[in-house]
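Now read this:
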Amino acid sequence: MKDLMKLSPSTSQFLVSLAYFPWSIKPIYGILSDCIPIKQRKRVPYLIISSCLSLLPWLILGLSQTLRTSANMLTSLLIVQNLGSAMADVVIDAMVAEAVRLAGPVFAGDLQSLSWSSMAVGGIFGSLLGGYALSNLPIHVIYVVFSALPFFQLVSCMFVEDSPKRFQSAIDEHNNQSSVTAFSEEGSGEALGKEGTRRRKGTRKNNKRRSLSKQTEANEKPNGSFNSSPCLSLKSAFFSLCTAFKQPAILRPMAWFFFSNVTIPNISTVMFYYQTEELHLEASFLGTARVIGWFSLILGTYTYNRYFKHKKLRDILVFAHVGLAIISLLDIALVLRLHIPHGIGDKYMVLWGSALADAINQFKMMPFLILSGQLCPPGIEGTLFALFMSINNLGSTLGSFLGAALASALNISTAQFDNLALGLGVQLIGTLLPIGFLFLIPNEVTGLTS
């Protein structure tokens, strides 16, 4: 976008934000995976589909010069690629959510740590490969290499356990309405008071009626399968989803996480332009620098799970946002060249900023992931967890669009970065704003969320 298409920083920021939009509609993939099985399998078929969607766009871009030099076609293919990546992410998140629910809150942090640490190890190798590729390979070859990686993901689907017998057990558990009622009662708590008690009594009566209705349908269609009545399963999943999400214990924290992302204008693409055009840092160096970020992500995950998960969630989130504000200060110092008199090089400023940002971000993401995993009722793990993640991703996407608008309003271009420090100042203020709305997070909740 920068070197071949000569797009402005704000335009590139906008197109990148648009390309990541599929990550904001993850509940759709979750509903498909949870409620519409393919050959009585809920996970593997969707992993195969998502792997193909991730593979083909890179292959097309690698083979067609016309498509990869068109901004519209490039963005369209990137949307398809992110669609495949997001769908695979939903399926894997559902598997982790199932494991978290079965393991209980004591091991929830360990499971999420294992998941993120595994991703970080892959990120380290990917960043090393990216840094080497940018320095030694032409762009079309890089795209072909990208297509090879989803191919390995496709092959790995052969080793994922997703038997029809296990699927049938999940159906039986999902169709047991008493589990939904129990979750509703547990999630409501004392906050709902007498009104919540009356609603639960009504829910029990309605569940009895539904149970009788389902028994009648089962007698009339003894050979029917779950796959033959997708509308019924979709309705049940939607009912469970609404029952779970309307609880204040869920709705209020999710509203805060959404708000905390929307208020921060993301200008990371603009900073990439500044680092390569103004500071003349090699793109290969910035790719390799992500290795430091991934190591920091592992360190942040370990530190949170070892020392912070028993502390109050409000205190953890204050620490995270103050830390992110400090990162913005480092970026402002970089743009204003305040580090030069102290003999600190640009590369060290970029490396430290990347390392600290990834580590601190984990103190915000880990409690969010653990909370989301624990609140998923049986049968709709993929749907509800995907909804939680979509709220977070949609907030980030809107924040990225806000960053593109901010860059455009400040007239930041490839040759004009005079107002970049002002934009970073706005980002710093936006980072501190969510601290004033932490009343949405229950005061007694800890980082372990139990």
Q: What stands out?
A: The mean pLDDT is 77. The longest helix spans residues 71-103. The chain has 18 helices and no strands. Residues 226 and 232 are 9 Å apart (CA to CA).
